[in-house]
Amino acid sequence: MQLMILDDRRTLGDLLRNRMNELGIRQKDLMDERLTTTTISNIITGKKNVSKKTISYLCQKLDWELEQIPQYLENLEQIKIDQSKQIRLQLKAIETDVGSKQALEKIKEIISSDDPYILATIEYLKGKCYARKGKWERARDHYFYSIRFYDAHPEIRNSNLKSASFNELARVYYNQNQYEEALKCARKGKECFIQNGERKYFQFHLQISEAIYLDNLGLPVEALKVLEKMWKYQSEIETETLLNMYSLQSILYNKLKLYDEAVKNIEVAIEIARLGKHYDHIFELWTTLGVSYKNLGNIHFAKICFDTASQLQDKVRSKHLLLAYNYTESGKMYLSERDTKRASEVLTNAVKLSKKANDGTRQLEAQTALGECYLLQDRFLEAVQQFHEAYGLANKLSFLEQECNLTLKLALCYEGRDIVKYNRYYALFYQRSVQLLSGGEPIMLQVSKSFPQPEREIQPEPPEG
Do you know which SMART domains this protein is assigned to (predicted)? Predict the structure, then answer.
C-alpha cells in the first residue's frame, strides 16, 4: 500500500498539503538545509523527481510517519466526504435565497472542490445570480459551464442540473424577447431530463415554459396541447406551477374564443390563488377574467374585474409587468366604448410600464391600441408614431402577423394624405402578407376604419427553479 501511494504522487501531495493546512504551517516554515521551497512545492504538486527519503523527512517534520500514510489517506478521504457534504448543504442554502444581494459573494467564499456535482451547481447558481441582476450574457455563460461539467461527468447525471440549466437559459432568452431560442432550450431541457433523478419539479417547469413560449410565438393550439398533457399529473405539481397552468389555459381559451370555458377555469384558479395568497396570480387572473367578460360583451362585469385587480397592485411583486397587462386590457375596453380620453390615459401608462418591464409583446399591443386611440381623436402624427414604433418592435420580434396589420394601419393613415407613403406602406403590407401566406399560415386581414387588432394577453412567467 505504501508503494502504491508513492506511485500516486498527486494523491500524496494532496494529503501532505491538507496536513500543512491542518497544522497552519506554510512552506517557508518547513525550509531547512534539506528542504527548499522548490522541493516542498514539487512534493505537494505531485512531481516524481523527489526521493522517498526526502518525502519521509517532510512527513516527519509534519509529525507523520511515511508508513502510516495509508491510514492518513483514509482519514483524508473521510474529510473530503465531510467537506463535500458541507459544501452541498451550503449550496442548497444559497439556492433557497438566490435572490439576495449576498448570494454571489457566498458562492465565491466556498472552498475549492473537485467534486463535479459541486462545480456544476456553483456555475448554475452563479447563472441564477447574474440573471437576477439582468446580466444576461454572464448568466448564459455560467449556465453553459454547468452543462459542460454535467456532460463531462456521467456520475452526476441524476442531478438533472443540465435540465435545470436549460430551463434557466430559456428564461434568459424569454426575458430578452427571443422566444424561438427560449423554446429550443425548454425542449432540450425536456429531452435530457432524468425521470428518477433529482429536481423532479423541473419536468413540469419545462413543460409549462414550453407552452408559454409557443403562445408567445403565436401558436395557441400547440400550447394548449402541451398543457393538456400536464393535467393528468395535477396532483404531483406544486401550486405555483399549477396556477401558471390555469392562467395560461384561460388566456389560450380567450384567444380561441372559448370565453365561457375561460371564465369557469379562472373561477377555480382564483380560489386556489386566494387561499394561498398568491397575489401576482390573483391580479393576473382577475385581469384575464375581465378580458373574458369584455369579449362576451359584458362590459359591466369586465370593469368589476379590472378594478378588482387594480386594487391589489400594492401587493404584487411583478408590478410593471402586471399593471401593463391590466392597463392595456382596460384601455382597450374604454376604446371599444369610444371613451378616448380615458383610453389614452390608461394606454399611455401601459406603454411606459411595458417598456420598464422589457415586455416586447405587451409593449407591441399597448402601442398599437394607443395608436388606434390617437387616430380616433384625429391626432394623426401621434398615431403614426405609435404604429411606426410598434411595427419596428414587431419586426424585431419576428411577429409577422403583427407586421402585416401595422403596415396596413400605416398605409390607411396616409391614405388621402401622402400618396408616396401610402404606396410605400401598402407595398410593404403586400410583401409581408405574401411572406406570411407562403409560410403556410394564412390569416384573414380585416381592413376597416376602426383598425381592429388581434388580442394578445399576458402569459404567466416561465417558472424559475
Answer: TPR
Q: In angstroms, rounded to a whole number, what is the distance separating the alpha carbons of residues 227 and 245?
A: 7
Between 103 and 465, name the one with better pLDDT. Answer: 103
When computed from its CA atoms, the radius of gyration of the chain, rounded to whole angstroms, is 30
Residues 124-137: tens digit of each pLDDT: 999 999 999 999 99
Retrieve residue 308's grid coordinates: 378588482
Q: Does domain 238-317 have CATH number 1.25.40.10?
A: yes
Q: What is the pLDDT of residues 222-275, one digit of tens each?
A: 999 999 999 999 999 999 999 999 999 999 999 999 999 999 999 999 999 999
What's the chain's average pLDDT? 88
Phi, psi dihedral angles at 330 (to 5 degrees): -70, -35
How far is residue 74's CA from residue 15's CA, in Å, rounded to a whole number? 10
Measuring CA to CA, which residue among 439, 406, 450 is closest to residue 425? 406
Give phi and psi for 115, each to the nearest 5.
-75, 115
Q: Which three cell numbers stand for residue 322?
A: 402586471
pTM: 0.76
Identity at 156, one-letter amino acid code: I
DSSP one-letter string for 354-407:
HHHTT-HHHHHHHHHHHHHHHHHTT-HHHHHHHHHHHHHHHHHHT-HHHHHHHH
8 A C-beta contact, residue 402 and residue 218: no
Average pLDDT for residues 337-361, to the nearest whole number? 94
* Domain topology for 2-64: 434 Repressor (Amino-terminal Domain) (1.10.260)
Contact between 397 and 364 (Cβ < 8 Å)? yes
